[in-house]
Amino acid sequence: MGNLKTIHYNKAIVSGKLEVPGDKSISHRAIMLGSIAEGKTTISGFLNGEDCLRTIDIFKLLGVSIERTGTDVSIDSPGINNWKTPTEELYAGNSGTTARLMLGILAGAAISSAVLTGDESLSVRPMNRVTNPLHAMGASISSENDKDFLPLKIEAESLTAIDYTNPVASAQVKSAILFAGLHAEGTTIVREKTISRDHTEQMLSHFGAEIQSNNGEISITGGSSLSGTNVHVPGDISSAAFFMVAAALVKDSSITFTNLGLNPTRSGILDVLRNMGVDVNVMNESAENGERSGNVTIAYNKIIPTEIGGSLIPRLIDELPIIALLATQAEGTTIIKDASELRVKETDRIAAVTNELTKLGANIEATDDGMIIQGPTVLTGGTMDSYGDHRLGMMAAIASLITTEPITIIDSACIDISYPAFFEDLEMIVGK
Ligand code: S3P
Fold first, then answer.
1. What is the mean pLDDT of the segment spanning 94-102?
2. β-strands 332-336, 307-308 pairing
3. What is the pLDDT of residue 2?
4. What is the pLDDT of residue 84?
5. φ and ψ at 160, to 5 degrees?
6. How confident is the model at residue 1 (pLDDT cuts 50, 70, 90)?
7. Is the CB of 95 within 6 Å of ligand 1?
8. 133-152: burial string, b at 16+ Cβ within 10 Å, e else
9. Domains in the chain, CATH or no CATH each
10. What is the CA(172)–ligand 1 centre distance, in A?
11. Among 157, 239, 263, 408, which has the highest number of CB atoms less than 10 A from its own CB?
């Protein structure tokens, strides 16, 4: 059954100020680009979550020196052209971002070969969305079983640029191609029908790559060498989303997030909260290394249903489980559509969210590409499975704010993947 944690924050008012840990997507990319670039890079606000630690471990095996002190990281790299061929397998753990972006990076690296592996969940997540375009660039990526899943072996090959229209709205796919394009001959173009998070583009530009981005068309010219620099990582809006919904659920609640990442390709949750009648106030916006941040106050008001689909989906893809919980308390029908990507996340999040909220008494129906939620419903307590998925674990914990009975979470330890101090921060904002 994995480890069990029982909690009940029965209608506790959420209040105070909180700086959530660093953004997971930006933390990965800061380590990756600091390791590709030659020389010294410093990172402040790094997320010490398990996924990002896997990325660090991989670059250490490639001969990059990386030291962590709290949330500060210093990298001293010989540069991608001087990495060493690893003598061990490169283990991405549960991290899709590590695995997919590393495939693009390793495809163009000057090492003879490397084998990339992952945990049980990652080993059944599709990799062909990345290996197909990389093969088209000339990459040598193979699997022992002729399947497109990890483990995959990457061998050195010279790459040529491609012009690729991304069939899935996935920043991981886009990023893998851009990283490969950095070491390919010519100008690689990635076209997106729906714009996905642009942290890779922002950070490549910050490290000195020749990259342009215009309305869903991103081009990168291979051959430029990058040099180390400094990166500040703002707080992760996907982590804050759990406490935003906590405040939106309980009467009289109000919480302020400081130094919160507000990249417009990630801030769809704020639009949805506003559409659902929740009070949202954004203050003191600024930008560093291409990433916007600021302070955000979320206060309880009313909860009305909404429809979420189209270009909004990639801007809040990881927030949909917690938005589904909020929708159980809206008066009327909330529709989430165009989100079939949820089926290939750390777990099938459409099935998992529907199962777990149904157990509590929610009126929620799974569709092929989303969920239909009818509210408001009283939620009882009971056992909720995280399926080893950090976002499901955190959704279960927040549910305990409105359930009539305690919630027991199966495998709450998986929350360490993105938010190791989650329960401490939850206790703080509910005044325990
Ligand atoms: C991520 C992109 C998204 C997101 C994931 C992190 C990234 O995945 O769900 O948590 O850092 O690029 P997809 O690109 O597969 O949509």
1. 98
2. parallel
3. 67
4. 97
5. -120, 150
6. low
7. no
8. bbbebbbebeeeeeeebbbb
9. 4-22+235-429 (3.65.10.10), 24-232 (3.65.10.10)
10. 5
11. 239
